[in-house]
Protein backbone atom coordinates (compact mmCIF):
# COMPACT_ATOMS: atom_id res chain seq x y z
CA UNK A 1 0.00 0.00 0.00
CA UNK A 2 1.42 3.37 -0.97
CA UNK A 3 1.88 5.99 1.67
CA UNK A 4 -0.84 8.18 0.19
CA UNK A 5 -3.33 5.35 0.09
CA UNK A 6 -2.45 4.41 3.66
CA UNK A 7 -2.95 8.00 4.73
CA UNK A 8 -6.30 8.09 2.99
CA UNK A 9 -7.41 4.87 4.70
CA UNK A 10 -6.40 6.30 8.05
CA UNK A 11 -8.25 9.53 7.39
CA UNK A 12 -11.40 7.73 6.36
CA UNK A 13 -11.16 5.49 9.43
CA UNK A 14 -10.68 8.54 11.63
CA UNK A 15 -13.65 10.28 10.04
CA UNK A 16 -15.78 7.17 10.52
CA UNK A 17 -14.67 6.90 14.14
CA UNK A 18 -15.64 10.48 14.70
CA UNK A 19 -18.96 10.47 12.90
CA UNK A 20 -21.29 9.05 15.53
CA UNK A 21 -19.48 10.50 18.50
CA UNK A 22 -18.69 14.07 17.67
CA UNK A 23 -21.88 15.63 18.81
CA UNK A 24 -20.93 17.30 22.11
CA UNK A 25 -23.27 16.79 25.00
CA UNK A 26 -25.45 13.79 24.44
CA UNK A 27 -29.20 14.13 24.44
CA UNK A 28 -29.30 14.85 28.19
CA UNK A 29 -26.73 17.64 28.05
CA UNK A 30 -28.54 19.40 25.24
CA UNK A 31 -31.90 18.93 26.92
CA UNK A 32 -30.65 20.45 30.18
CA UNK A 33 -28.95 23.41 28.47
CA UNK A 34 -32.11 24.26 26.57
CA UNK A 35 -34.42 23.62 29.53
CA UNK A 36 -32.43 26.08 31.64
CA UNK A 37 -32.59 28.62 28.81
CA UNK A 38 -36.36 28.18 28.41
CA UNK A 39 -36.85 29.14 32.06
CA UNK A 40 -34.98 32.40 31.50
CA UNK A 41 -36.72 33.68 28.38
CA UNK A 42 -38.79 36.83 28.38
CA UNK A 43 -42.42 36.40 27.44
CA UNK A 44 -41.76 37.87 23.97
CA UNK A 45 -38.88 35.48 23.40
CA UNK A 46 -40.94 32.53 24.66
CA UNK A 47 -43.71 33.37 22.20
CA UNK A 48 -41.26 33.82 19.33
CA UNK A 49 -39.46 30.56 20.10
CA UNK A 50 -42.70 28.58 20.37
CA UNK A 51 -43.81 30.05 17.08
CA UNK A 52 -40.69 28.72 15.36
CA UNK A 53 -40.57 25.25 16.91
CA UNK A 54 -41.59 22.36 14.68
CA UNK A 55 -44.89 20.72 15.59
CA UNK A 56 -43.22 17.55 16.89
CA UNK A 57 -41.48 19.56 19.64
CA UNK A 58 -44.83 20.12 21.38
CA UNK A 59 -43.87 23.67 22.27
CA UNK A 60 -40.76 22.59 24.16
CA UNK A 61 -37.39 23.91 22.93
CA UNK A 62 -35.45 21.45 25.12
CA UNK A 63 -36.94 18.45 23.34
CA UNK A 64 -35.80 19.77 19.95
CA UNK A 65 -32.23 20.72 20.88
CA UNK A 66 -30.65 17.50 19.62
CA UNK A 67 -32.18 17.96 16.17
CA UNK A 68 -28.85 18.92 14.50
CA UNK A 69 -27.30 15.65 15.75
CA UNK A 70 -30.23 13.58 14.56
CA UNK A 71 -30.21 15.22 11.12
CA UNK A 72 -26.46 15.33 10.77
CA UNK A 73 -26.26 12.55 8.20
CA UNK A 74 -28.75 14.36 6.02
CA UNK A 75 -26.66 17.53 6.31
CA UNK A 76 -23.01 16.45 6.06
CA UNK A 77 -21.95 20.05 5.46
CA UNK A 78 -22.99 20.84 9.05
CA UNK A 79 -20.60 18.33 10.67
CA UNK A 80 -17.76 20.70 11.44
CA UNK A 81 -20.16 23.26 12.93
CA UNK A 82 -20.47 21.13 16.07
CA UNK A 83 -16.95 21.76 17.34
CA UNK A 84 -13.76 23.79 17.11
CA UNK A 85 -10.73 21.65 17.82
CA UNK A 86 -7.42 23.26 18.65
CA UNK A 87 -3.74 22.27 18.47
CA UNK A 88 -3.78 21.46 22.19
CA UNK A 89 -2.40 24.70 23.57
CA UNK A 90 -5.50 25.28 25.74
CA UNK A 91 -6.42 28.24 23.57
CA UNK A 92 -8.97 28.92 20.87
CA UNK A 93 -8.18 31.37 18.13
CA UNK A 94 -10.92 32.11 15.62
CA UNK A 95 -8.56 32.86 12.74
CA UNK A 96 -6.52 29.74 13.37
CA UNK A 97 -9.12 27.21 14.54
CA UNK A 98 -12.50 28.12 13.05
CA UNK A 99 -12.59 26.20 9.80
CA UNK A 100 -13.99 23.07 8.24
CA UNK A 101 -12.07 19.88 7.42
CA UNK A 102 -10.79 21.39 4.17
CA UNK A 103 -10.01 24.74 5.71
CA UNK A 104 -13.40 26.30 4.89
CA UNK A 105 -13.44 29.57 6.79
CA UNK A 106 -16.00 30.04 9.61
CA UNK A 107 -17.14 26.39 9.51
CA UNK A 108 -16.78 25.67 13.22
CA UNK A 109 -19.09 25.91 16.20
CA UNK A 110 -18.29 29.58 16.83
CA UNK A 111 -18.93 30.46 13.19
CA UNK A 112 -22.18 28.49 13.40
CA UNK A 113 -23.37 30.42 16.46
CA UNK A 114 -22.56 33.72 14.78
CA UNK A 115 -24.20 32.61 11.53
CA UNK A 116 -27.51 31.55 13.07
CA UNK A 117 -27.65 34.48 15.51
CA UNK A 118 -27.29 36.84 12.56
CA UNK A 119 -29.86 34.88 10.57
CA UNK A 120 -32.47 35.12 13.34
CA UNK A 121 -31.75 38.81 13.82
CA UNK A 122 -32.28 39.53 10.15
CA UNK A 123 -35.91 39.18 9.15
CA UNK A 124 -34.90 39.13 5.48
CA UNK A 125 -32.47 36.21 5.91
CA UNK A 126 -33.13 33.47 3.35
CA UNK A 127 -32.37 30.76 5.92
CA UNK A 128 -35.17 28.66 7.40
CA UNK A 129 -35.87 30.31 10.78
CA UNK A 130 -36.89 27.07 12.48
CA UNK A 131 -33.61 25.48 11.51
CA UNK A 132 -31.65 28.60 12.52
CA UNK A 133 -33.20 28.43 16.01
CA UNK A 134 -32.50 24.72 16.46
CA UNK A 135 -28.91 25.07 15.23
CA UNK A 136 -28.29 28.05 17.49
CA UNK A 137 -29.73 26.33 20.57
CA UNK A 138 -27.76 23.15 19.86
CA UNK A 139 -24.44 24.87 19.15
CA UNK A 140 -24.68 26.94 22.34
CA UNK A 141 -24.63 23.58 24.11
CA UNK A 142 -21.81 22.17 21.99
CA UNK A 143 -19.47 25.12 22.46
CA UNK A 144 -19.62 24.65 26.24
CA UNK A 145 -18.55 20.99 26.13
CA UNK A 146 -14.79 21.22 26.81
CA UNK A 147 -13.90 18.31 24.51
CA UNK A 148 -15.44 20.19 21.61
CA UNK A 149 -12.50 22.51 21.77
CA UNK A 150 -10.13 19.63 22.46
CA UNK A 151 -7.16 18.58 20.41
CA UNK A 152 -7.34 18.15 16.66
CA UNK A 153 -4.80 15.29 16.85
CA UNK A 154 -7.21 13.01 18.76
CA UNK A 155 -10.42 14.47 17.30
CA UNK A 156 -11.45 16.06 20.57
CA UNK A 157 -10.81 12.89 22.56
CA UNK A 158 -12.69 10.62 20.14
CA UNK A 159 -9.64 8.48 19.40
CA UNK A 160 -8.66 8.09 23.06
CA UNK A 161 -10.34 4.84 24.04
CA UNK A 162 -11.12 4.41 27.72
CA UNK A 163 -13.26 2.32 30.01
CA UNK A 164 -15.66 3.93 32.44
CA UNK A 165 -15.81 2.34 35.88
CA UNK A 166 -14.19 -0.85 34.51
CA UNK A 167 -17.30 -1.72 32.56
CA UNK A 168 -18.34 0.53 29.68
CA UNK A 169 -15.95 0.81 26.74
CA UNK A 170 -16.09 4.37 25.51
CA UNK A 171 -13.79 7.26 24.56
CA UNK A 172 -12.73 10.47 26.22
CA UNK A 173 -15.05 12.56 24.09
CA UNK A 174 -18.09 10.51 25.05
CA UNK A 175 -17.08 10.59 28.70
CA UNK A 176 -17.69 14.34 28.53
CA UNK A 177 -20.76 14.08 26.27
CA UNK A 178 -22.62 11.47 28.25
CA UNK A 179 -20.86 9.43 30.91
CA UNK A 180 -20.24 12.15 33.49
CA UNK A 181 -23.86 13.28 33.19
CA UNK A 182 -25.25 9.75 33.41
CA UNK A 183 -23.07 8.85 36.40
CA UNK A 184 -24.02 12.12 38.14
CA UNK A 185 -27.67 11.30 37.55
CA UNK A 186 -27.35 7.84 39.01
CA UNK A 187 -25.17 8.84 41.99
CA UNK A 188 -26.92 12.06 42.98
CA UNK A 189 -30.16 12.66 41.13
CA UNK A 190 -32.18 9.42 41.34
CA UNK A 191 -31.58 8.86 37.64
CA UNK A 192 -33.92 11.72 36.97
CA UNK A 193 -33.05 14.50 34.55
CA UNK A 194 -35.44 17.04 36.01
CA UNK A 195 -33.94 16.53 39.49
CA UNK A 196 -30.54 17.31 38.02
CA UNK A 197 -31.88 20.36 36.19
CA UNK A 198 -33.45 21.64 39.41
CA UNK A 199 -30.13 21.30 41.25
CA UNK A 200 -28.36 23.31 38.57
CA UNK A 201 -31.13 25.94 38.57
CA UNK A 202 -30.89 26.25 42.33
CA UNK A 203 -27.21 27.11 41.94
CA UNK A 204 -28.14 29.84 39.49
CA UNK A 205 -30.12 31.55 42.21
CA UNK A 206 -27.52 30.85 44.93
CA UNK A 207 -23.83 29.99 44.41
CA UNK A 208 -23.47 31.49 40.96
CA UNK A 209 -25.79 34.46 41.19
CA UNK A 210 -22.99 36.97 41.67
CA UNK A 211 -21.01 35.78 38.66
CA UNK A 212 -23.82 35.32 36.17
CA UNK A 213 -23.63 38.88 34.90
CA UNK A 214 -20.07 38.09 33.87
CA UNK A 215 -21.24 35.05 31.94
CA UNK A 216 -23.34 37.16 29.63
CA UNK A 217 -21.12 40.23 29.62
CA UNK A 218 -19.40 40.84 26.34
CA UNK A 219 -17.06 43.56 25.27
CA UNK A 220 -18.39 43.70 21.74
CA UNK A 221 -22.13 44.29 21.80
CA UNK A 222 -22.49 43.23 18.21
CA UNK A 223 -21.18 39.68 18.57
CA UNK A 224 -22.46 36.72 20.51
CA UNK A 225 -19.19 36.40 22.39
CA UNK A 226 -19.01 32.83 21.21
CA UNK A 227 -15.24 33.22 20.87
CA UNK A 228 -15.09 33.59 24.63
CA UNK A 229 -17.14 30.43 25.23
CA UNK A 230 -14.79 28.44 22.97
CA UNK A 231 -11.75 29.94 24.70
CA UNK A 232 -13.13 28.75 28.04
CA UNK A 233 -13.77 25.26 26.67
CA UNK A 234 -10.28 25.02 25.17
CA UNK A 235 -8.87 25.97 28.54
CA UNK A 236 -11.01 23.39 30.35
CA UNK A 237 -10.08 20.68 27.86
CA UNK A 238 -6.42 20.68 28.90
CA UNK A 239 -6.89 19.42 32.47
CA UNK A 240 -9.44 16.92 31.11
CA UNK A 241 -6.60 15.13 29.29
CA UNK A 242 -4.37 14.88 32.35
CA UNK A 243 -3.77 11.32 33.50
CA UNK A 244 -5.74 9.87 30.60
CA UNK A 245 -3.98 7.60 28.15
CA UNK A 246 -5.06 5.09 25.54
CA UNK A 247 -7.15 2.38 27.32
CA UNK A 248 -7.17 4.15 30.69
CA UNK A 249 -9.84 3.10 33.12
CA UNK A 250 -11.58 6.17 34.52
CA UNK A 251 -13.69 6.18 37.65
CA UNK A 252 -14.28 8.21 40.82
CA UNK A 253 -11.01 10.13 40.72
CA UNK A 254 -11.83 11.32 37.22
CA UNK A 255 -15.58 11.66 37.68
CA UNK A 256 -15.63 13.77 40.85
CA UNK A 257 -13.60 16.71 39.56
CA UNK A 258 -15.36 16.53 36.16
CA UNK A 259 -18.93 16.62 37.45
CA UNK A 260 -18.97 20.24 38.73
CA UNK A 261 -17.30 21.39 35.52
CA UNK A 262 -20.00 19.72 33.45
CA UNK A 263 -22.80 21.15 35.58
CA UNK A 264 -21.41 24.65 35.37
CA UNK A 265 -20.89 24.45 31.61
CA UNK A 266 -24.50 23.34 31.17
CA UNK A 267 -25.65 26.25 33.33
CA UNK A 268 -23.53 28.71 31.39
CA UNK A 269 -24.78 27.37 28.07
CA UNK A 270 -28.37 27.78 29.22
CA UNK A 271 -27.93 31.27 30.62
CA UNK A 272 -26.10 32.44 27.53
CA UNK A 273 -28.58 30.88 25.12
CA UNK A 274 -31.40 32.69 26.94
CA UNK A 275 -29.47 35.96 26.79
CA UNK A 276 -28.94 35.60 23.04
CA UNK A 277 -32.58 34.66 22.36
CA UNK A 278 -33.83 37.51 24.55
CA UNK A 279 -31.59 39.94 22.71
CA UNK A 280 -32.85 38.66 19.37
CA UNK A 281 -36.55 38.51 20.19
CA UNK A 282 -37.13 41.24 22.72
CA UNK A 283 -34.23 43.63 22.40
CA UNK A 284 -33.01 42.72 25.88
CA UNK A 285 -29.30 42.95 26.34
CA UNK A 286 -29.00 41.41 29.76
CA UNK A 287 -30.09 37.92 30.70
CA UNK A 288 -30.58 38.42 34.42
CA UNK A 289 -34.22 37.49 34.67
CA UNK A 290 -36.94 37.22 37.21
CA UNK A 291 -38.29 33.79 36.47
CA UNK A 292 -35.82 31.05 37.25
C1 LIG B 1 -24.83 29.39 7.75
O1 LIG B 1 -26.11 28.82 7.58
C2 LIG B 1 -26.38 28.34 6.27
C3 LIG B 1 -27.82 27.84 6.24
O2 LIG B 1 -28.01 26.78 7.12
C4 LIG B 1 -25.37 27.26 5.91
O3 LIG B 1 -25.55 26.87 4.57
C5 LIG B 1 -23.94 27.78 6.10
O4 LIG B 1 -23.02 26.72 5.89
C6 LIG B 1 -23.78 28.28 7.50
N1 LIG B 1 -22.43 28.78 7.74
C7 LIG B 1 -21.88 28.72 8.96
C8 LIG B 1 -20.49 29.25 9.11
O5 LIG B 1 -22.48 28.28 9.92
C1 LIG C 1 -37.95 24.68 7.81
O1 LIG C 1 -37.25 23.61 8.42
C2 LIG C 1 -38.10 22.67 9.07
C3 LIG C 1 -37.18 21.69 9.77
O2 LIG C 1 -36.26 21.12 8.89
C4 LIG C 1 -39.01 22.03 8.06
O3 LIG C 1 -39.87 21.10 8.72
C5 LIG C 1 -39.83 23.11 7.37
O4 LIG C 1 -40.62 22.54 6.36
C6 LIG C 1 -38.93 24.16 6.78
N1 LIG C 1 -39.74 25.27 6.27
C7 LIG C 1 -39.62 25.72 5.05
C8 LIG C 1 -40.49 26.89 4.71
O5 LIG C 1 -38.87 25.22 4.23
C1 LIG D 1 -23.19 24.46 42.84
O1 LIG D 1 -22.11 25.38 42.98
C2 LIG D 1 -21.05 24.91 43.81
C3 LIG D 1 -20.05 26.04 43.95
O2 LIG D 1 -19.58 26.46 42.70
C4 LIG D 1 -20.45 23.65 43.19
O3 LIG D 1 -19.44 23.14 44.02
C5 LIG D 1 -21.53 22.60 43.00
O4 LIG D 1 -20.99 21.50 42.31
C6 LIG D 1 -22.68 23.17 42.20
N1 LIG D 1 -23.76 22.20 42.11
C7 LIG D 1 -24.45 22.00 40.98
C8 LIG D 1 -25.58 21.04 41.05
O5 LIG D 1 -24.19 22.56 39.94
C1 LIG E 1 -29.03 47.80 26.66
O1 LIG E 1 -28.63 48.14 27.97
C2 LIG E 1 -28.36 49.52 28.16
C3 LIG E 1 -27.83 49.74 29.56
O2 LIG E 1 -28.17 48.70 30.42
C4 LIG E 1 -29.65 50.31 27.88
O3 LIG E 1 -29.40 51.69 28.04
C5 LIG E 1 -30.10 50.03 26.46
O4 LIG E 1 -31.32 50.68 26.22
C6 LIG E 1 -30.28 48.54 26.24
N1 LIG E 1 -30.57 48.27 24.83
C7 LIG E 1 -31.64 47.54 24.44
C8 LIG E 1 -31.77 47.35 22.97
O5 LIG E 1 -32.41 47.03 25.24
ZN1 LIG F 1 -23.58 18.80 18.31
UniProtKB/TrEMBL annotation:
InterPro entries reported for this sequence: PLipase_C/P1_nuclease_dom_sf, S1/P1nuclease
EC number: 3.1.30.1
GO BP, sorted A to Z: DNA catabolic process
Similarity annotation: Belongs to the nuclease type I family.
Keyword Nuclease in annotation: yes
Lipid biosynthesis found in the keyword field: no
GO molecular function, one term: RNA endonuclease activity
Keywords assigned: Disulfide bond, Endonuclease, Glycoprotein, Hydrolase, Metal-binding, Nuclease, Signal
Protein name, entry field: Aspergillus nuclease S1
Reactions listed under catalytic activity: Endonucleolytic cleavage to 5'-phosphomononucleotide and 5'-phosphooligonucleotide end-products
Gene3D superfamilies: P1 Nuclease
Signal peptide positions (record): 1-17
Organism this protein belongs to: Triticum aestivum
Amino acid sequence: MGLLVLLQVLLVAAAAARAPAARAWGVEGHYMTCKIAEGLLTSEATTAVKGLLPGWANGELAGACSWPDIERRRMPWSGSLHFADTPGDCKFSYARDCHGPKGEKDMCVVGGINNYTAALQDSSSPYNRTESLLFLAHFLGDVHQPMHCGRTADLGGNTILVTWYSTAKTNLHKVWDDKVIQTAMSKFYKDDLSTMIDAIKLNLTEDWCTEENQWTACSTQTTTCADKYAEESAELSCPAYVGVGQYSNLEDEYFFPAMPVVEKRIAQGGVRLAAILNRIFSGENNSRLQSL
